[in-house]
Amino acid sequence: MKILIVGTGYVGTTTGLIFCKMGHQVTGLDLDERKINALQAGKLYFYEPGLEDLLTKHVSAQNIRFTTDTENAVKENDVIFICVGTPLGPQGKADLTFVKNVAGTIGRYMNHYKVIVTKSTVPVGTAENVTNWIKENQPSSIPFDVVSNPEFLREGSALHDALNPDRIVIGASSDKARAVMRNLYKDFQCPIIETNPQASEMIKYAANSFLAMKISFINELARVCDALGINVNDISTGIGLDHRIGPHFLRAGMGFGGSCFPKDVNALIQTSKETGRPLSILEKVVQVNDEQQLYFMKKIRQVLGGNLENKTIAVLGLAFKANTDDTRESPSLILIEKLRGEQAAVQVHDPVVKSAGLMQFSKVEETVKGADAVILCTDWNDYKNLDWAALKPLMKQPVIFDGRNMLNKTKIEELGFRYLGVANH
Ligand code: NAD
């Protein structure tokens, strides 16, 4: 089948390559010429482990090509995946500007029956909107179907996740489109949930909101544990082994960030409000998440003598989590802004993210030099394996704030550090 991927970001590029692997002919379309040129040259312009090898292989084999030529891309393909961004818009709603633009273009250039698939995370009712946006732009009436097929991959393990999904969700309203989608995913072993587009759209938001809720639960519980002198990591293990709860997304830390959770939780809150049945539980999830940063800041301030003015702070990690270069809504960047707001001098390091406007060093040794404290913000493996004994003499004061509870407290304290994790007693 000839597949068009519109939007060659983290999701679009991964999805396109997965379909190449399944034997399809794929075109990747983006407005950004820089990205298209890089991808067509077999170069991944973002950081995602393992993906560049697959890209190089399929570009060389001409199973995938990348273009900015919208008209031909739409005309030549049978199935069109919309993978553009759906960022946080005004009043917490998902901003569908990019999706609407793509739908309009598809309508304008449609030349025969096509299945249009929304893989972007879009609010309930968007399949219907996309249908209307396409129709409004069609010069003459050509039949088509719109299907919702949300994506659940995680940055950092995108390839593995896209190849081994827990489930595939297909929200179609016609048998013809459903048959096309079944055929596309026929080689996958996981359960396939077939439902209508609205339920499919809701599944994605419900999944992300539930995971965000687990994080806020353990973070708020961590504060209680802190007051009681309990190690919250033991609680995570103790409850996570219960199969009804599960161990994932139960690590206390600095709060969730990234390009999905904050915007998706907010968008579902807005959807719920529009129904007149607000999801108050999710409003709490957001509130707890915002407070977690403040809680962490308060600790840093207290330990450093109540004032951060002229203190030098080394921040390790800018990405919102390990194994990605994505800094959208990164807790680290939010913290850095707060630290600088309190007149601290901030020195930063990240193994892959290059920051503009921050004092960044390429080596951890340089970053911690003269620091009053180190804050671990991203759970990169590189940081777990640092030689802390060698770093200690470089610092002004041996203080570590572990925003990810990733270091072994006992070992670090044995080296003479003052160590503060998140209720990591
Ligand atoms: P991204 O920002 O990395 O990529 C989006 C791409 O779309 C950009 O390259 C942009 O240039 C392009 N684009 C915008 N308008 C276009 C147009 N009219 N024509 C062609 N290209 C256009 O975004 P992403 O992280 O891949 O996310 C895409 C969607 O998938 C979002 O809705 C997101 O919520 C969802 N999602 C993301 C992840 C993730 O981990 N990143 C996981 C699951 C779902």
From TrEMBL:
Pfam families documented for this protein: UDPG_MGDP_dh, UDPG_MGDP_dh_C, UDPG_MGDP_dh_N
Binding-site positions, substrate: 152-155, 204, 249-253, 257, 321
Database matches in InterPro entries: 6-PGluconate_DH-like_C_sf (IPR008927), NAD(P)-bd_dom_sf (IPR036291), UDP-Glc/GDP-Man (IPR017476), UDP-Glc/GDP-Man_DH_C (IPR014027), UDP-Glc/GDP-Man_DH_C_sf (IPR036220), UDP-Glc/GDP-Man_DH_dimer (IPR014026), UDP-Glc/GDP-Man_DH_N (IPR001732), UDPglc_DH_bac (IPR028357)
Domain UDP-glucose/GDP-mannose dehydrogenase C-terminal, first and last residues per copy: 314-409
Keyword entries, A-Z: NAD, Oxidoreductase
List of residues binding NAD(+): 30, 35, 86, 121, 155, 263, 328
Chemical reaction(s) catalysed: UDP-alpha-D-glucose + 2 NAD(+) + H2O = UDP-alpha-D-glucuronate + 2 NADH + 3 H(+)
SUPFAM superfamilies the record matches: 6-phosphogluconate dehydrogenase C-terminal domain-like, NAD(P)-binding Rossmann-fold domains, UDP-glucose/GDP-mannose dehydrogenase C-terminal domain
Oxidoreductase listed as a keyword: yes
Pathway(s) of this molecule: Nucleotide-sugar biosynthesis; UDP-alpha-D-glucuronate biosynthesis; UDP-alpha-D-glucuronate from UDP-alpha-D-glucose: step 1/1
Keyword NAD included in the entry's annotation: yes
A GO MF label: UDP-glucose 6-dehydrogenase activity
Any one of the GO BP annotations: polysaccharide biosynthetic process
Enzyme Commission code(s) on record: 1.1.1.22
Active-site residues (renumbered): 260
Similarity comment: Belongs to the UDP-glucose/GDP-mannose dehydrogenase family.
Protein name (database record): UDP-glucose 6-dehydrogenase
Organism for this UniProt entry: Neobacillus citreus
